[in-house]
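Quick review question:
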């Protein structure tokens, strides 16, 4: 009789290290020296160099000999584009986000949770205002303090961090709206959940100046954001629409 294997296969250490190494690079820190990578990877300099060389050969890393720094390579861009193309919600959300932008004249941002934090996967920019808020696709957001992070903390279940106090989480669950005005001075984001059937799949947010986006959860922009996210949720087959109040 053939034995059924129910346990998960062991993680290949080389693959795990390579993925960890690539994840060290962020929009805020796009360049690193070998010494910096070695320190974060927790391996010897020789081992880190072998990984860096292997990743360079396949286009995942690029090395600038003039300054002695590594950056992500062109292959990463190709894989990122393929990953975004595979996210069904990125395609479906486009028209809803465009309509919301036309109504509120504020930048509309869609984020998904990657297991550690919200990641921006689609942006509809507000280009008409004198002060333009630019949010980059691929940006990682704080998991518990950003507006989108608070949405995932509240509605995401056991696989998401829980860094909110009970009153704030209860208010977000009741109103379906989370706010943040602390990440960048003068900038405010308000976010609301998007569901597919019963599962939270994304957070949709408005990002603008503190003057143009009020904290009031009953403001016109907030209500239009919730309406747009509820419409998108319904399109994805969810019955979880509207507020509890």
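Suggested answer, residue by residue:
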């Amino acid at each position: 009789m053939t034995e059924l294997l129910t346990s998960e296969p062991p993680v290949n250490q080389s693959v795990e290290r390579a993925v960890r190494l690539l994840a060290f690079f962020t929009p805020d820190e796009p360049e690193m020296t070998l010494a910096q990578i070695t320190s974060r990877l927790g391996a010897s300099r020789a081992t880190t160099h072998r990984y860096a060389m292997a990743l360079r050969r396949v286009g995942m890393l690029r090395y600038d000999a003039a300054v002695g720094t590594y950056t992500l390579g062109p292959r990463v861009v190709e894989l990122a584009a393929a990953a975004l193309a595979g996210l069904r919600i990125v395609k479906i959300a486009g028209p809803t986000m465009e309509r919301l932008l036309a109504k509120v004249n504020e930048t509309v941002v869609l984020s998904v949770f990657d297991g550690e934090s919200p990641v921006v996967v689609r942006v509809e920019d507000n280009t008409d205002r004198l002060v333009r808020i630019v949010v980059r696709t691929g940006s990682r957001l704080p998991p518990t303090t950003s507006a989108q992070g608070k949405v995932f903390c509240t509605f995401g279940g056991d696989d998401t961090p829980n860094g909110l106090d009970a009153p704030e989480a209860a208010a977000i669950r009741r109103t379906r709206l989370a706010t943040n005005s602390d990440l960048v001075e003068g900038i405010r984001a308000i976010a609301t959940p998007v569901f597919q059937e019963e599962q939270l799949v994304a957070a949709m947010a408005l990002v603008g100046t503190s003057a143009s986006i009020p904290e009031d959860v009953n403001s016109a922009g907030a209500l239009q954001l919730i309406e747009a996210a509820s419409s998108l949720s319904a399109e994805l087959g969810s019955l979880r629409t509207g507020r509890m109040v």
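Why it works: The helical segments are 13-23, 34-41, 45-57, 74-86, 88-104, 147-155, 166-175, 220-235. The two ends are 58 Å apart (CA to CA).
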